[in-house]
Amino acid sequence: MEETIDLREYLAIIKKKAWIIAAITAVTTFVSAFLSFFVLSPVYEAKTTLIVNTDQKNDDTITGDEFSVTQRLAVTYGEIIKSRTVLEPVIEKLGLDISYEALSKMVTVSPVKDTQIINISVQDTNPLKAKDIANSIPEVFTKEVKRITKANSVEVIDKAVEPLSPIKPNKLMNVLIAFVLGIMIGLFVVFLIEYMDNKMKTPQDVEKHLDLPILGVIPKEKM
């Protein structure tokens, strides 16, 4: 006998064990809310923007080759910014109690495509500290890049300001994701339990699994 999928059977299973889904969803949502609001520290991000200047000769026009070279310099400068030559003096200047490796993970350098602009962002749990680091990096970098490459100069377009609100964790999004995840886990557990339960509980189960006709049903009475 070929088995057919009946949506009503699945809905009945979900309804019968809805408490399992509700319990798992409540646990995942509570854990996510507790971690997001009381455990995870808010992280702030401060940004500064640099521009790689092009050396011009006698006129004010920039050729395609010059612009291409400047773009490649922006990528090169991005690597120099995260080097020990730049970040270790920043640590000494600000008196930071962190290692070069730790500071390097806090700093993100991203050249803007098809431009001469470099974005520097610093993430930290202290907004003032993030701002100070973001503003100190260009100061040190400007001195070191002239010594290292003897190439085009770099100027600051926008200085970093103290961020007012954290960028993570996104508390509401974390709770929402945990809520949806809890429902999915709950459904998986419910159907797994139902799949592993091979007991025959109704006359329909006998017909479905044994392919035998039902001659009669003994009623269950409460004494």
Describe the model:
The chain is α+β, with helices and mostly antiparallel strands. It is 56% helix and 12% strand. It has helices spanning 7-16, 18-39, 64-81, 84-94, 100-106, 127-148, 171-196, 203-210, and strands at 44-52, 107-111, 117-124, 154-158. It has a four-stranded antiparallel β-sheet with strand order 2-3-1-4. α2 (18-39) packs antiparallel against α7 and α4 crosses α6 (127-148). The longest helix is centred in the last third of the chain and has 26 residues, at 171-196. The protein is elongated and about 95 Å long. The two termini are 38 Å apart. The model has no long low-confidence stretch (mean pLDDT 83).
Q: Key features?
A:
single chain, 223 residues, alpha+beta, 8 helices, 12% strand, elongated
Total number of β-strand segments? 4
Note the gap between the termini. 38 Å
Number of helices: 8
Low-confidence stretches: none
Strand sequence of the main sheet, in spatial order? Answer: 2-3-1-4
Element layout with pairings:
Blueprint: H1 7-16, H2 18-39, E1 44-52, H3 64-81, H4 84-94, H5 100-106, E2 107-111, E3 117-124, H6 127-148, E4 154-158, H7 171-196, H8 203-210
Antiparallel strand pairs: 1-3, 1-4, 2-3
Helix pairs in contact: 2-7, 4-6
